[in-house]
Each structure stands twice: as C-alpha cells, then as structure tokens.
Design a protein that fits this description.
Jelly Rolls, four-stranded antiparallel sheet, 22% strand
Length: 268
Amino acid sequence: MAAARDRQEVSAWRPSVPGVTEVFHAHFTEYAYPMHVHEAWTLLIVDDGAVRYDLDRHEHGTPHDTVSLLPPHVPHNGSPATPHGFRKRVLYLDSTRLADDLIGPAVDSPDLADPVLRLRVGQLHAALAQPGDELEADSRLTLIGDRLRAHLRPRTPTDVPRRDPVLARRLRELLDERVVPGIGLDEAAAVVQAHPAHLVRAFSTAYGIAPHQYLMSRRVDRARRLLLEGRSPAEVAVATGFYDQSHLSRHFRKLVGVPPGRYRGSAR
C-alpha cells in the first residue's frame, strides 16, 4: 500500500534546441527533494497539485498560473504541498539563455504570477515533445527568455520593441530558400545579423504569423501538391522537410483539417 501511495513517474530527455540542457516531467506523491543545487537555470511549472520549497533560506510555493525560475548554484529543496502530490514540467537552461546577472533578482522573486508566461511555457513543452518542431521550440523559448528578463530587469523606454519590415522580409526570403532543409533560429539570426528575439518579433509583427508557422505553412503547401500527384504520405514527408510521416500528419491536419492520406484519397 505504501508503494502505491508513494507514486513516482518521470520522463527526461535532451532536445536538439540550443540552451536547453534537459527537459524533465515528473509526478511525485510523497517524494521530497533535499537541499541541492543545479548548474543550470530551472524553469518550473506545476500542472497539478503544488510544491513548496526553500530558496536562499526563504519559503516559496507554486500557486496556480505561476512560473518558478530557480537560479543556478543557489541551494533549494522541494516537497508536495497537497495530499496527492504534484505533477510538474521542468526545463533546465544554460547561461546562453539567461545570464548570471539575473541570479540576484531571481533569488528575490523566483515565482512569477504571469498567466501569459505560464501558457507560453506550456506551449514550449508541447513543441519540445515533438521531434521536427525545433524551430518552433527555439522561437518560443527565445520569447520566453525575453519575458523572463522583463520580469527580472524591468525595461527602460529604449527597450520598447520596434517594427522592422526590412528584417522581416529578409527572414521570409531566407525561409523561402530553406523550406525543405529548414534553418535554426540562431543560424537565421547570424545570417541576417539580428538578435534572435528581435528577429522573431519583427517577423511576427510584419506578417501576423511566427517564423515556424510560416515555414510549416510552406511545407504543407508543397505536401498538398505532391499528394495530389499521387505520392504517398511517407514519401511526401521526406520530400517536404518533415521529420517523419507523423510530423507531416500533425501539421497537415492542423492546417488542412484532414490527414494527408484522406486528402490524397479525395483527389479527382
């Protein structure tokens, strides 16, 4: 009976997204973490239950809609704050995503009551769980990093985002050239000589769609043409830059409303 009550479920992996050292999902009912430290930043959301923890000798918790950001090298613990335990999702981020000068502000205010940030972190976890969506995950993480920095280091008037249609067009042209092989956000930023966060914002502002959504739309358009030519979904997935047939099916259904096989079967 004790083993049944003390439930422990974990899933961990390292995605192909720069700056993410680990993704960790867990469900614990009775387990309590002792005091420990991490080399990386810990970005935590709790989907069910609640966690209480001590950070730098101060007690904290994870109420609904809260995102917790625990800085590297600062001791903390963690234990369930509800009888049924907690279910959490965690990202461990290296210093390329968040600099060490944010450690002090994060120690002072680790729990961020920001429903929009909470939603975006959940969307990021969904993208990280699907191979082939690395550009989406990288773009989402870049904007999340921007929002975290805004919480910890309030912006000055000179930090207000500005429109940049020329930059947006350059990225669109780059994506058009790389529909099948794709391109990572850092590589794209290096090519057009812009900060990744500014690049994503400029593109989204100019076209009303994020770069990863634009790229997937172009791929699905190509997939539609090839399916109507009679090619199989598996062949089309490879030819249009999707990770595999499942990756094609997920995005095709999202944009067209039906799976690729059914779309192909409707051809006249």
